[in-house]
Design goal:
This protein is of the alpha/beta class. The protein contains 12 helices and 12 strands. The protein has a 7-stranded mixed sheet with strand order 4-3-7-1-8-9-10, sandwiched between helices. The chain has a 3-stranded antiparallel sheet with strand order 2-6-5. A two-stranded antiparallel ribbon has the order 11-12. It starts with 5 loop residues before the first helix and ends in a 14-residue tail after the last helix.
Length: 300
Amino acid sequence: MPGRHPLLLSAVILSACVRAEAAPAPPRKLQVFVLAGQSNMDGRADFGKISAADRERLRKVQDRVQLAYNLQPPGLLTGAKGGAGLKERFGADFSFGPEIFFGIRLAEAYPEHRFLLIKRSVGATSLYGRWNPEWHAEKAKVMNEENAPPLYSDLVAYVRRTLAGFDRGAYEIRGMLWVQGETDGGVSKFGPAASKAYGENLQKLIRHVRDDFGVPSLPFLMVRVSTGDVGRGMDEAAERMNNVTVIPRSMDPASPNFLPQYEVGHYNHVGMKRMGDLLADAWLARYAGSPVSAVGVTTP
């Protein structure tokens, strides 16, 4: 090249390469998960009984994992302050659901990512009634829920409101966790209608979630917390729909899928930790590498 000294040219090329290498990588997108269900999603496990080692694990990831819980803005991933009923019935001042250990596991697996868990949960609620995306007063009345506000539309509005605080290109919705079914399985109290319709209603729920959040293949993971027609309905949804996973629950204390309880219906701190781990195991094994997420939620 005339008029250009070779050493000077080399220096220019080297400088350009250094500048290119020094350019910061684009920020990783916030990984968003939606959690919903009844009391075992809400959690009655005693947060005070988490081991010192697990508390340290939680502390190390709290700067990267936030929890938006029951209509509140995003905050620290930690136990929820309970009322007098929690203390009287379970001896706990603070409780937790599957979000604690689900969040810990994902943050440990992906140390360069940030996570947001958006949870809406209300105890003793049914898919036939309050969680039904196609809510109907007569069905809600069967479950004694006709005077309570519908929860599905409430969940969608909460997710949209929470994510409105972020740029649409700054996050990805990576999955939904569902822990519900005990109320629909209460045949002796409510009759067989809700239990028999659970599979159909669950598939409607998944379709609505994917449509309303704008993620057609959104992974949907659930724990088989009920048996009978409800459990069969969960299996049916997993067989008929893509990216749907049912995590079985075992009654064998030696099984890794055994979830210890305080009493029939509610899981203690050991059971709830195990539930969070099982949900994380399933998502990491089946969906972590899948490009299934969307840039943002759809708006009404």
